[in-house]
Amino acid sequence: MNERELFNAVMHYEPFDRVPVWYNGEWPETTLEWAQQGLLPDANRPKYFNTVTFPWTVPTDLPVEFLGSKEVGRKNEVGLRWPTILLPAFPEEVFEETDEYRVLRQFDGVVVKQWKHQSSIPHSIDHTFKSAKDWPEYKKRLQPDPRRLPKDLDTILEQMHDYDEPVRMRVGSLMGVVRNWMGVERYCVLQMEDQELLSEIVDTIANLACWEMDHVLPKIKVDLAWAWEDISSRSGPFISPRVFQKCVVPGYQKITTKLRQYGVDLFGVDSDGIFDPLIPGFLEGGVNILYPMEVGTWKTDVIQLRRRFGRELRMIGGVNKLELPKGRQAIDAELARRLPLVQEGGYIPAPDHEIVPGTRLEDYKYYLESIRAFRVKGPVSPN
Fold this sequence. Notes:
Elements lengths: L2 H9 L10 E2 L4 H9 L27 H4 L2 E2 L5 E2 L14 E5 L3 E5 L5 E5 L7 E4 L8 H5 L13 H8 L7 E3 L5 H7 L1 H10 L1 H22 L7 E5 L3 E2 L2 E2 L3 H21 L5 E4 L8 H6 L4 E3 L10 H8 L4 E6 L8 H17 L2 E5 L9 H13 L10
Parallel strand pairs: 1-2, 3-8, 8-9, 9-12, 12-13, 13-14, 14-15
Antiparallel strand pairs: 4-5, 5-6, 6-7, 10-11
């Protein structure tokens, strides 16, 4: 079976004999190290370090064909690159610039400090969306508009019909992007003081996502819809389960209803940190895939989560990226812990975030070869 068939077999607990080999990107510094260790410098791979999140681009790109792995959620996407983008965007306004950094108001109204010579999430300094009085300015920028769709959308979709890899569609962000717009503290205050407004924001974004789906999904079969949230830290989620249930789950349900009208039954959410308290709400909202299942310092255990929530919870990730620099013995032990879930199905092992500097190219290749060596009759019955 090809990669598309394999993905669907694993996620639907159908027979499969191998495991998808996926990863979640790498730090630019890692790419530079690997280039010095023999990585092919002429890889045919687009640059995904955009000018907002990673202003420092590297001189070479990781050749995924050379390594034989696939990127999680970054290729074969239909529709909008980022459905919750503001239209029109806020004009960029530079307030300060040195040889090391820039301070500017970026496209989403957030004032950030961007480092020029190191990869890092920009440091937020100020926000345009500070209170309820600022919401109308954002709401008018979150409306359906034909300009949101690529002019050559039909041609793009036609070319993707026969893809042999899973076709994905982004459906936006109901929480994480709002947290970006307002900042963590204001977002936390909002959910406590004005849940009616939070519900309106979520509903506005969900309606925009459904509008896009109506333009795309009648024309192509999509295997996976996914949203980005990043709504948790090592201490837990930035939103209480009660408010999540009341204000956000209905938005997911609206999106899920639309997806299933078009035969899309896999809906994934990318969120970092400890989000376990939100999993029941995610499942009720129709989300059935979570990633990257971040191991980190809090030791997320994908096997325990499967035992707790059952097969409706599919997962991608859960491999501790910090074990990869430690060498082959550590890699073997890390993967051995994941094997029972791999055999059961509904799970694709992958590093829980970008590959960190200090990971030797040969060790990373060994990790990939170890994943390829997994041979299973799957799915098997859980214990």
